[in-house]
Design goal:
- The chain is mainly α.
- The protein has one domain.
- The protein has 13 helices and no strands.
- The chain is globular.
């Protein structure tokens, strides 16, 4: 993996992690296009790196939502009731995907970390996004504030996040959609998705580094992956700020069309032997 490869992977991770278009899907396809991780020595390493590079996006959320995290810390210390409620909700929502991810890790990597499963998820998700956006389900609206979220609603959002273990589905998409369905406002749904993403991605990244960190270093060194992480951080900051502003006035339909378009493009590339 060259420095240019690392920067490209980092930029794609950062720009797509919190958009409802699936960062994992994009990274899988880009790795094929760049011919990174295609040998027996690097195949497992690139799969792990595609997870570990999420740390850049995690740092972006931590920086942009630092005040919310401080409130949650105060909640843990018994100094903020609203902070405690949000913290409990995030932890409850995290549990389902954590359990399924641990139990099904090998099966997921062996059967779903491929281009065709990603393309299928892009298309299905894209069609559903367009349909539900036009019905007003995924449109900006008022609703329950984040501070008023219930444990039951958090659990439902967490169960929806399990679906995103299928690469190409998009964790952001299913969590935002589920949050809107249970009655949260668009602003609250997006913020909760980011907070849940912080916990989920932190756990996945930490687990992957502990398990396969040395494997990644042996395959790619430490400097090149670090450059990719910095690129992911910068791209995620831009992406998050844009997404928050965009969804205050628009529904998710544009992302549905993008998912279908990228699926068609990747299918064409595969048909012509490019990937």
């Amino acid at each position: 993996m060259s420095l240019i490869d690392a920067v490209l992977l980092g930029l794609v991770e950062g720009f797509t992690e919190f958009l409802p278009i699936s960062s994992t899907g994009h990274l899988l396809v880009l790795a094929d296009v760049l011919n990174v991780g295609q040998t027996a020595h690097t195949q497992e390493a690139i799969k792990s790196y595609e997870i570990a590079i999420q740390f850049g996006a995690i740092l972006a959320v931590a920086g942009l939502y630092r005040h919310r995290f401080l409130t949650m810390i105060e909640g843990a210390a018994g100094k903020s009731e609203s902070g405690r409620r949000v913290l409990v909700a995030v932890l409850v929502a995290f549990v389902p995907a954590a359990i399924v991810g641990l139990v099904g890790e090998s099966a997921i990597k062996e059967n779903l970390f491929g281009v065709w499963p990603v393309v299928c998820a892009w298309v299905i998700g894209g069609v559903l996004v367009i349909v539900f956006s036009r019905r007003g389900v995924l449109a900006p609206r008022s609703g329950t504030s984040l501070e008023a979220i219930t444990t039951r609603n958090a659990l439902l959002i967490g169960l929806a996040q399990v679906v995103a273990l299928w690469p190409g589905t998009s964790r952001s998409l299913v969590t935002i959609a589920a949050a809107l369905v249970v009655g949260l406002s668009m602003r609250a749904a997006v913020e909760f998705s980011f907070l849940l993403g912080f916990v989920t991605l932190s756990a996945a990244t930490g687990y992957e580094i502990l398990k396969n960190g040395q494997l990644m270093i042996d395959a790619f060194g430490w400097f090149t992956p670090l450059v990719g992480l910095v690129a992911a951080f910068l791209a995620a900051v831009i992406s998050i700020k844009w997404m928050v502003g965009y969804l205050e006035k628009h529904d998710l339909e544009i992302f549905g069309w993008y998912r279908i378009a990228i699926a068609a493009l990747v299918t064409a590339l595969m048909s012509t032997g490019v990937i």
